[in-house]
Amino acid sequence: MHILIMTDIEGVAGVVKPLVDTTGGNVNYPRNCRLLTEEVNAAVRGFMQAGASAVTVWDGHGCGAIDFETLQPPARLIHGGPTPPLVWLFSRLAGRFNAIAHVGQHAMAGERSGNLNHTQSSAEIISYTLNGREIGEIAQFALLAGSFGLPYIFLSGDQAACREAEELQPGIVTAAVKEGLGRASALTLTCIEARALIEQQAGLALRQHLQHPLPPVRWPGPYILRKSFFHTEVTDMYLGDANVRVLDNHTVELRGESIPEIIYK
Ligand SMILES: [Zn+2]
Description:
The chain is of the alpha/beta class. Helix content is about 30%, strand content about 25%.
């Protein structure tokens, strides 16, 4: 049982403020990378104690957020950048894994109770919908993994991210390390308690999955992805693209037959 953990930084206990806490070059950033990596270590311990044979960690935060010296064995790390496109890379690696998890994940853009809520680019994106249903980064990755037959078994993040994962995948086990009090504030566990909770819940997630396997997250196609942007110059980038309908000044619509071809377009 080989688990893939996709990481982000906005759902980590102690990381709370937009930009200054989440982007390189700021005074708290190296500490926040260590906070994330210790939460990842906790999840790895939980999975290994519950019977995992291997855990691979994918450093999913844009500028890189795993502190390499802090990451403990037996984890393996996918990192670097610019990497090949995520879907291309994932399609080549998916056969090595048996299930996926999120650590440090945040809620979708527009979820007001979600600390650091956003979808992909907090400067550009108002919202995404897929076949009429609002989605964020949680559904994007769970659906991509699901299209390769990989179930989604665990998430740690703030309460709103946990709710989002539970709505997407009933039966998933979560660990809420903070309660968003708005996009830029939260009521947070200590890092010691956050790590203990993540270790316990990751272990529970894998034990439950081994006893009663969760199905991969799959939605029937074909797919219509609508993307809404704050600024019109982002909309303009799609002008003349035969595969995209520009619906209004802020919204474009893309169609696809499969999840891999559309979910990160
Ligand atoms: Zn993110």
